[in-house]
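Long-time lurker. I teach an intro course on protein structure, and each term I like to show students one example going from raw sequence to a predicted 3D structure in token notation. This year I'd like something fresh instead of my usual example. Would anyone be willing to generate the tokens for the chain below so I can use it in lecture? Attribution to the forum is fine with me.
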Amino acid sequence: MGVLDNVLNNDFSLKYYGLNDLTTGWSIKKLIEKEEDIKEYFDQNELRINSKDDFCDYLLLHSIKKYQETIEYLRYEEMKPVVKSLINYAIEKLNSYHDPESQIYELLNNNYMKLFNNCIQRISSATVSL
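-- Reply from a regular --
Happy to contribute to a lecture. Here you go:
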């Protein structure tokens, strides 16, 4: 099970919908609440894309990175460094993957029917935005 199951309890979207979407504020709140758990999860797991869960983990890091534009609009100043820290952490982890495009290609090529049939909403829209 990946970070979505273990840490976020399947209660988070892999797709970032932008500043004007109502879910963005809720998503930021969830990221702030789970910041340490997210970091702990990624620190304890290998950064490879061999399964649906691994792929969702990678997509989550990409999603977190996109929240950069929200920082200046956060209502409470104490939230800003937490969100910045998590974004920087996500970027650092993304840079730690070895040739992720090849890993994604191989995973999709070998398992596309299973991946897209089982989690069409979660993975497909986030994958297209890569």
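Some talking points for your students: The chain has one domain: 3-128. The two ends are 22 Å apart (CA to CA).
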